[in-house]
């Protein structure tokens, strides 16, 4: 999900009028870029690598990719990452409730103010 794409999309109606609506990264994707499903597959690969490691793992990255990773960690479609707000430079922690079959968010979007 590259940020270097259009900020708005153009919608033309049959009567010739034009409406400019806000562009939505998760809904619209990027021209010539990855779809939400593509990013979800990339997140799944990273999650598989994390789950194979023993002990704690530290990840850092861009906000939107992390939102997708959390959605996939919770076994939701990648598109559901759009519902998870994340501030810059915030801390979050993922883990399990009782077993690896029960993924949870242990800490979300923690910032020092």
What does this entry show, briefly?
The chain has about 110 residues and is α+β, with helices and mostly antiparallel strands. The protein contains three helices and four strands, in the order ββαααββ. The radius of gyration is 17 Å and the shape is globular.
At CATH level 2, the architecture of the domain at 36-110 is 3-Layer(aba) Sandwich
> Rough shape?
globular
Residue stretches low in confidence (pLDDT < 50, at least 5 long) are: 1-8
Structural class: alpha+beta
For the biggest sheet, the summary is:
2 strands, antiparallel
The oligomerization state is: single chain
The radius of gyration over CA amounts to: 17 Å
The CATH homologous superfamily of the domain at 36-110 is termed Phosphoglycerate mutase-like
What does this structure look like?
- α2 crosses α3.
- The chain has a domain at 36-110: 3-Layer(aba) Sandwich (Rossmann fold), CATH 3.40.50.
- It has helices at 25-28, 36-52, 63-73; strands at residues 8-12, 18-22, 91-96, 103-110.
- It has 113 residues and is of the alpha+beta class.
- The model is unreliable at 1-8 (pLDDT under 50).
- The two termini are 29 Å apart.
């Amino acid at each position: 999900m590259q940020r270097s794409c259009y900020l708005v999309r153009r919608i033309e109606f049959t009567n010739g009028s034009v409406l400019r609506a806000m562009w939505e990264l998760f809904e619209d994707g990027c021209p010539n870029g990855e779809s939400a499903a593509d990013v979800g597959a990339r997140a799944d690969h990273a999650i598989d690598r994390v789950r194979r490691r023993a002990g704690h793992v530290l990840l850092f990255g861009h906000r939107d990719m992390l939102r997708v990773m959390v959605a996939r960690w919770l076994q939701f479609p990648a598109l559901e990452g759009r519902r998870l707000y994340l501030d810059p430079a915030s801390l979050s922690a993922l883990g399990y409730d009782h077993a690896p079959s029960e993924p949870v968010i242990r800490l979300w979007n923690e910032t020092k103010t």
